[in-house]
Every structure is written in C-alpha cells, then in structure tokens.
Give the backbone structure.
Amino acid sequence: MEELKERIRREGRNLGRGILKVDSFINHQVDPILTMAVGQELARRFEGSPVTKVVTAEISGIAPAFTTAVALGVPVVYARKSKPITMPEEVYRETAPSHTKLRVVELFISPEVLGPEDRVLVVDDFLASGQKRRALKRSDIPRVDSISSVLVH
Amino acid sequence: MEELKERIRREGRNLGRGILKVDSFINHQVDPILTMAVGQELARRFEGSPVTKVVTAEISGIAPAFTTAVALGVPVVYARKSKPITMPEEVYRETAPSHTKLRVVELFISPEVLGPEDRVLVVDDFLASGQKRRALKRSDIPRVDSISSVLVH
C-alpha cells in the first residue's frame, strides 16, 4: 500500500531495537482517512475468504482491524490485555511478549463472542514482532484456522 | 439514537453496581455498522464546531471516537493508560478512577500530537462514570475548552 509506505517514510522515526515510532498517524494519533483506506485494502486481499469475525489485540491493532471489519461487514473482537469484570470466568487466554511494553502481556477473549462456527481474520498493526498474532493463532479458540495478516508484509 | 438504545435494551445486561454489560457490540465485540452510525450522529451534533482533534481514553472509547473522527475528517488521539517507550519524557498526564477495573488509571497524551491551537472533542463510551472524560478536561492540555460528549446522554 503505497500511501501507507510513503507516510511511514515521511513521518516514521527509527528508535532502534526494532521500534518504529509512528505515533503521529497510527498508534497515538490516528489518521482516520488513511486507516479507512488500510481497512479497504486488507478486506480486498481477503475477498472471497469465509471470514466471520476480525480479531485484534488491543490497542494499536484496533483501528485497522475496525476498518477491515467495516469493509468486510463483520464484527470485530478485541482480545483484551486485562480481564474486565464483565467477562465470564471461563475465557480463552494466551500470553505474548510486548515489544513496546518490554513485558509479557496476557490476551483474553470471551467464548461469548467467538464460537466453533467462526472463521477468524487476525489483524494487528505492523510494529511488533508478530508474537501477539502468533499467540492468537495458537490459542485454544475453536477452529481458528486463522487467515492472518499484518498491515505491511 | 434509537438504533443504539434498542440494541442496549435487547443485548445489554445489568450486572449491578452501575455496570452495564454490552460487550457483544460495544467493548469486546464491536458492531462496525452501528459504530459508524454512532460516529455520524456525534459528528452531526457538533457540526459547525471548530473541532481539530477527537480525543478518547483507550480502550472502549476508541471505536466511537474513531468513527466520529472519520465523520468530522479530523485525526483522533488516544489518551494512553500506560506510557509507551515511544512517548517523550514530558507528557500531559492525568488520573481517573476506572469503573470496570476497580482502580485508578493514568492517562497520557504526548504534546507532539496536541498543541495550543487545537480544539478538542472528547468522545468516550457511555458506560463509566464520566471520570475519565472529566480528567481529560481538567488536564493541563493547552486550551482544551473541550466540547465534550458521551455516546448516550
């Protein structure tokens, strides 16, 4: 996606240790026009796939996952990093190291929002190591033969 | 907004202690069609206001804030609950009690994304006590004579 690459070249800053600072348009301040275009592009790439839910790990994955879900016309599910009191006792739970938080984070999804009939598209931002995405794939969520993608390959 | 009220009546569950469980369409699984409509409605209510940025507190505020920003054609800024290593030393910082987390949360915004010329519309979800919204208003962000709104009045 040329528009996104150009923006990264213009505004991104390499902080070293594999960290790219893009918080002026992706993960602190978010450009909604660019993010809508990203969602349309990701949805286009999975056109024809039997996706029933988009899943992302909060927080910076939320915007591109949301816009992909808009374009696909399916719900989006946020894997939560802490278990809110509104979530039932029995949940899907996985762990993954966070690149920017320098610690292991937990990921929780309620079985109330994902079932055995679901086919999941995992969308996350492109900054991290892909560990959260892998954690979502290896989790015991039923039949996540997940079609996975990140924002930029 | 009748569509949202109807959905809350149909799917919401009162868990007591002022907590409404709406995680099937607002804050765990998110309905993108409904959320786009919410953004359009909020933007309509602030038509003509000189809003330059939408600000929200992660996490459940992100989706309605994002869609409001799409409709207004301005960037959205997430007040972060932890300070990522990509954020500079000097930041805007406030604290607010979280209703669902049962503890005080911190809110961080980088001065790189908000300046004295900005006019801010604060959008959060409607579940909590409004404390995070008030924290964002009283913070020392320059000229946040903020036009505030929540999803449902």
